[in-house]
Amino acid sequence: LILAILLANSAEDIAVAIPMAFFSAIGYAARRGVIIKGEDSLKGLTKVKTIIVDKTGTLTLGHLEVQKIVPFGEYAIEEVSKIAASTEFFSEHPAAKAILNYARSQKLSYEKPDAFEEKPGRGIVTTYAGKKLIARRKNTIQEMQNTVQSSEFQTIKKKKKKGFGITLIGDEHKLIGLIVLADKIRPGIKEAIAKLRGFGITHWVMLTGDNEKVASRVATELNIGEFHANLLPEQKVDYIKRHLKKFPKTAMIGDGVNDAASLALADVGIAMGAIGSDAAIEAADIALMKDDIAEIPEIVELGRYTLRIARQDFFIWGVTNFLGLALVFSRTIGPEGAAAYNFITDFFPLINSLRLFNLHLKIK
Questions:
Q1: What SS3 class is residue 291?
Q2: If pLDDT is split at 50, 70 and 90, which confidence band does 138 have?
Q3: Cα 262 versus chain centre, distance
């Protein structure tokens, strides 16, 4: 009878305490703008050893920014910037938008051109202050080899070889300057990768539809050893299918409808939520609603901490039941004492799990 009283509800406290720990952790993540779809997703993230990540919109911001302005001849950087902004004024090309944004950020004064003609894939011809100005895109560079100075052409080739976007500004007779553009690395991404490496996630693979040179530049800057460029969406899916068995526990980080299938295939799919599509968020196990990849290290630490709490719950449950049995067999307590002991100790694992409600996690 005494054993029956002691053991009747012995499993109920642990059956409540463990889910409570995970629900508390998921609630904590939600308050930080990270949606975790169940405890299996959180557990899975703690076991990840390989991360496959999409480049554009995930590692990078997904839009061009001016990295550098190289003036030629007697021109100064500010002059080149003003002329470039005026030349690109009416263009909808991503490079033009980046140049105009740069001019505005520098509070430079520039005016609309008097005439404007855009040739898709080649550049722009404008007339400004009675002068014909030309903005050339990177695919016209080889055509210019015999019309620009050798030193200028070598500078252009060097920037292009490193995977930067190139816009050349000039008039009918000579080059005025070179605008170097690139898709900017997300703030905090280097630190996030370093923290995740510290957690044992040392194998990183970058997939991208961009060309080899652009991919190489980003991979080198972020110290990602393996990358695959010029991939179509279906090729990304094929890559993950081929390597799921090869790599231990794999997570995929991506955004957009093109990544939805890849996210669904990975052991743990992580979607960049706010910029991602509904399809990507639906397919993912974890959605970062703030588009901040720096949240991932904290969620990994959260999962590990939650598992430690769960193990502590099992330990507390085991110890209290062992002590209860010892008290019963030694005849230290009777039926009333066993009932009281059982009631009181039921709360110990629950109280331990409740620590997650007031969690203030610090990533080390």
A1: coil
A2: low
A3: 15
Amino acid identity at 48:
V
Nearest-angstrom CA–CA distance, 302 and 111: 53
Q: What is the pTM of this model?
A: 0.76
Please check whether residue 267 is in contact with residue 250, taking contact to mean a CB–CB distance below 8 angstroms: yes
* Tens-place pLDDT, residues 247-260: 778 999 987 666 78
| pLDDT mean over 58-66 | 86
The CA distances from residue 173 to 24, 86, 133, 148, 177, in Å, are 68, 18, 10, 9, 13
Catalytic residues: 54
Q: What is the DSSP letter of 186?
A: P
Instruction: Look up residue 103 and give its two tokens.
Output: 């001019």
∠194-200-203 over CA atoms, to 5°?
A: 75
Residue partners of 305: CB distance under 8 A and separation at least 6: 25, 356, 359, 361
Which DSSP string corresponds to 100-166? HHHHHHTT------SEEEEETTTEEEEEETTEEEEEEEGGGTGGGTTTS-HHHHHHHHHHHHTT-EE
Question: Mean pLDDT throughout 211-218?
Answer: 87
